[in-house]
Amino acid sequence: MSAIARWARGGGLSTLVLLLPLLVVFGLFAWFPIGRALVMSLQETNLVTDPSWVGLDNFRQVLGDPLFWTSVRNTVYFTLLAMLFGYPVPLLLAVLMSEVRRAKGLFSVLAYLPVVVPPVVAVLLWRFFYDASSTGVFNTILGWVGLGPFPWIQDASSAMPSLVLQATWANAGATVLIYLAALTGVRTELYDAAEVDGAGLWKKVWHVTLPQLRNILLITLILQVISTFQIFTEPFLMTGGGPQNATTTVLLQIYDYAFRFGDYGAATALSVLLALFLAIMSALYFRVTRSWSTS
Amino acid sequence: MSESVQAPEKTRQSNPEAPAGRVAPATAPRRRRARPSERGILSDFDRARPRTRWAMRTAQGLVLVMLLVAAIGPMLWLAKAAVTTTQDTLRTPLALWPNGIDWANLSTAWNEAEISRYFTNTVWVALGSWFCQLLVATTGGYVLSVLRPRFSRLLTGAVLATLFVPGVVVLVPLFLTVLELPVLGTSLLNTYWAVWLPAGANAFNLLLVKRFMDSLPRDVFEAARMDGAGPFRMLVAVVLPMSKPILGVVSIFAVLNAWKDFLWPLIVLPEPTIQPLSVRLPIIRDTVELDVFLAALLISMALPIAIFLAFQRLFLRNAGLGGAVKG
């Protein structure tokens, strides 16, 4: 009996058949493109002539593009604003919701509802809300208390905060639920101990609840950075990167290189740079989650 | 992070009765009401004090109102605006039908603006992506978890590695791959395969299913093997029925993510007649009247919300997944 026949009889053949979907799909659409990204970032590709090696020229071009630093700055600014809006609010909501005894599910459903709205629908709806005229939806509401009208996404200085406000609305619910789950793991005997020491409500939150949420706060921060650096739909549909490039992000830049200018080399070079940065962030994420589940 | 979906036995082990020193990122909010020993930040003594109770009720009432206004408000407004005339929506966006309700918007959007066609396209995109993800995740997870051939550790590692490479980073090379498949040389551009197949390469699903299958009792597999069940029989008759909970989770997130997807279908489906809603809506915005456009938005959002409300328990239990998938 040959080795191959023995292998087939031992179940090797059916294992291979069962593995086929994984191998084909991951091979063609995950592993191959990843390898290709590395190669392409060192090549000039224009789909007409054969790709040619250009060394680090693509990277030089990308890093030399003044828009690169604009988009990095914008993305960092987005992250900072997202932390400013999206950090305290979900945390406060979660702490308050964790103390709810009745209809807890209703609170969670309400908080999570915006997360399931398709991003394109949410962005287009908010774009209408942000109408800069005095009869815009938000300007009407603010007009009732004598504020505005504000230019929202029409103005370079308020465009980014407007985008972040929308993104926070769309994502806060998921963060609330993460915090809520983490809060159920807080060691409650510490509250008893704190009370014996005469701690009031705020002291209990500050000295018992928050320190135990430290890890989850770090994790949501990392996840925030990872997803912010991939932000696309919001600026693409809301402002198109404007006004005056105030909302251009790294991914918008990649899209423009590839699908507006047909410069696939530059697009992949920027992708690879982004990948490096995100890989560092993900590694950090896994490190934190691991140390956290073994502690 | 995949702590969130636990196999039956595991849940039993991590009994909340034990001091929960380790925090799971997205485990089910455990029911605390029933057990007298459990408490929150406020002690029962605190709760009994009238002033605290009053303050707590006010705070929670405020939270509820805030959630209602912030979360449901925009959707209710959209529902209102979808049946309001353009003139009214532009002049007095917050008035309730000063000139009557305009139901015709919905049918105009569905028929004339061809939302019906894009809705069907979206359903196709979602169903195919769902099938592909489920096929790859179940067969792959089964081989890596139950059959465990010699190279399975290496393969698991190779799948895990793709988790570290966010989808957007391979955007351009993936596009060029779809444009001309290696070996076959055919182009998937303007076919749904271009969306379905890459959707199947989801490492997160695969690892989720593998982890779940890892926790299934192995003596059942042994017994089935003794009874003469081959690898295929075992998958269909033993492993899949036991994996229903995790397959439900994967299915629902697969459908919703396909519904949400924008950038990838935008790139690989340039032909307007086959585009899904997400790609079509920004263009419809410029071609139809405002009231019809808002009606189209409402229709596009209805199905995901209905799915969420129907399976809310499952969502709330696995809420952490959404964020983790992106990573």
TrEMBL record, chain A:
- Please indicate if the UniProt record lists Lipoprotein as a keyword: no
Chief localisation class: membrane
Membrane topology per the entry is:
Multi-pass membrane protein
Ranges of residues in domain ABC transmembrane type-1: 72-285
Query: Which SUPFAM superfamilies does this UniProt record tie to the protein?
Result: MetI-like
Q: Which CDD domains match?
A: TM_PBP2
Write the record's keywords in alphabetical order, separated by commas. Answer: Cell membrane, Membrane, Sugar transport, Transmembrane, Transmembrane helix, Transport
Instruction: Give the family per the record.
Output: Belongs to the binding-protein-dependent transport system permease family.
- The name of this protein is Multiple sugar transport system permease protein
Q: Which organism is it from?
A: Haloactinopolyspora alba
Automatic annotation (TrEMBL), chain B:
The record's Pfam families line, in alphabetical order, gives: BPD_transp_1 (PF00528)
Any one of the GO CC terms: plasma membrane
- Low complexity bias (residue ranges): 18-28
Annotated ABC transmembrane type-1 domain ranges read 119-311
GO annotation (BP), single? transmembrane transport
Residue ranges spanning the membrane: these are 59-79, 123-147, 154-179, 191-209, 235-259, 292-311
Q: Where do the record's region annotations for Disordered lie?
A: 1-42
- Statement: the UniProt record of this protein carries the keyword Transmembrane helix: yes
What keywords sit in the KW lines? Cell membrane, Membrane, Sugar transport, Transmembrane, Transmembrane helix, Transport
Which family would the database say this protein is a member of?
Belongs to the binding-protein-dependent transport system permease family.
User: What protein am I looking at?
Assistant: Multiple sugar transport system permease protein
Organism of provenance? Haloactinopolyspora alba
